[in-house]
Amino acid sequence: MVKRAGGALLLSITIDPDSPRPVSTQLYVALRDLILAGGFAVGERLPASRTLALELGLSRTTVIDAFDRLTAEGLIESRVGAGAYVSQALQGERPRLPSVAAGVARPPQLSRAMAQAVGRFAARPRLPSSARAFTTALPAFEAFPMAQWARLAARHWRSARADVMGYGEPFGHQPLRQAIALHLRANRGIACDAEQIFIVGGAQQAFHLIGSTLLDPGDKVWFENPGAIGARNSLIASGADLVPVPVDEQGLRVADGLGLAPQFRLAFVTPSHQQPLGTVMSLERRFALLHAAEQAGAWIIEDDYDGEFSFGGPPLPTLKSVDATGLVIYVGTFSKSLFPSLRLGYLLAPPALVETFNIITSKLLHGVPTGTQAVVADFINDGHFGAHLRRMRRIYAERHEALCQAARRKLAGALDIVPSQSGLHTIGWLRGGRAEQRVAVAADQRQITVSPIGRFAIAPVDACGLVLGFGGIGPAQIEAGVDVLAEVLERP
Q1: What pLDDT score does 12 carry?
Q2: Residues 347 and 417 in one domain
Q3: Residues 236 and 291 grouped into a single domain
Q4: Is residue 290 part of a domain?
Q5: I need a surface site. Which of 133, 332, 399, 477 has the fewest CB within 10 A?
Q6: Same domain, 221 and 367
Q7: Is 28 found in the same domain as 160?
Q8: Mean pLDDT of the chain
């Protein structure tokens, strides 16, 4: 029996010495899969550890470690002086891996909101997120002060174990809440207290939390058209009935919103740097939106996704800073100002919603990892955040200018770049009857990313253009990307 077990079955086990996984882990996984697939019968003896080590060219210690893990998992039984045997617990039918290609016998019963969301999302492939021309929403990774960050992280992990390893506050690490409130008061002109700040796992979680808290399925939500994809998806998943409200050079057209849905429950806007068109909402439109929300008894979500990066003058004003109605819920993120993998954002609740979010976060959520929050809090309090923002504004201004200059030289007559005053992207209007989707596909084949404006729309828009990110790449890559885009646009 030992000889058979050590024959063809075990010779099929391959160990990759270059794999990052330890050899003992590779052996454990291979033996586990053989056992679960029925390669060994219940009660069958496995080869002796010496035999297996010899046949596979491994150390006996490695084999014993794999056997110990299989024993701990209950897949084999070790008998003193007799060897290792496949566990009797596998006497019944063994679990089988489901086949994704074959589907499932019974479709999952999703909620109506989620079924609608899944249906709408399935047709839209995710955009590339690599740092290449002209991927959007990526900061300049190479300019991040990693050494300072590493020192702060090391300092935190040397703190008391209860602080490092215990459960954190569900509504957020108090030093970070205080640091954010101070930053918003000093730099964004927003009067607020730390108790109004709730830390979340990125802006999209904030949007979904707000939608789940304030909306009933089918409630009307004014949404910029074109508008932010992540927020759109989160609100759809919350059951919102999105009302596409047109945007012009002054921002959301409030009068059109009133004509489409005078009784709305929520409005979503990006007033400081409209996503994706880049316009700034005029003061007149801001007051009109606040008045409309007050009349309808509606709330407003302000997404200030990249308002920190104004390089055409002082930071652009927020809607929240002129909100006298107490209806604006301000959402911020560290994905652009620091880096996306933090998955860290926050919402600033108006006074009327503070107790509601206190209850929801304390009873239903478990919060964001305290370690991440603590490092960000120190990064802000020690002055690194402010210095980083000032440096990044200069870098993004340089990259924006590099894109505009290259476009003027090489894309004139085909793509009209619209200069931006802030952020990590701008747009270009296509000329000559070119189809934006066709250009985007052709560009992707040449390893550059341009996003059609239509991708951001939930209803048809007259605009025909491309969204171009410049934050994540340097001037030389921008120049090379414009060269490729010029070749793409030369095709009929």
Answers
A1: 74
A2: no
A3: yes
A4: yes
A5: 477
A6: yes
A7: no
A8: 89
Q: What is the CATH number of the domain that holds 422?
A: 3.90.1150.10
Same domain, 397 and 358: no
Q: CB under 8 Å to 430, separation ≥6 — which residues?
A: 414, 415, 436, 439, 464, 465, 466
User: Residue 49 maps to which CATH number?
Assistant: 1.10.10.10
pTM of this structure: 0.84
Domain stop point among 57, 72, 90: 90
pLDDT tens digits along 157-195 = 998 888 888 888 999 999 999 999 999 999 899 999 999
pLDDT band of 119, cuts 50, 70, 90: low
Range of the domain at 486: 393-490
- Let me know whether 223 and 363 are in one domain: yes
Residue 128 is predicted with a pLDDT of 64
Answer whether residue 142 shows pLDDT above 90.
yes
Last residue of a domain, one of 336, 351, 386: 386
Residues 306 and 381 in one domain: yes
pLDDT at residue 1 tops 50: no
Report pLDDT for 6. 44
8: confidence class by pLDDT, cuts 50, 70, 90: very low
Question: Do both 346 and 421 map to the same domain?
Answer: no
Q: What are phi and psi of 140, to 5 degrees?
A: -85, 95
Residue 133 in domain: no
Amino acid found at 289: L
- Taking 90 as the threshold, does the pLDDT of residue 212 lie above it? yes
pLDDT confidence bin for 279, thresholds 50/70/90: very high
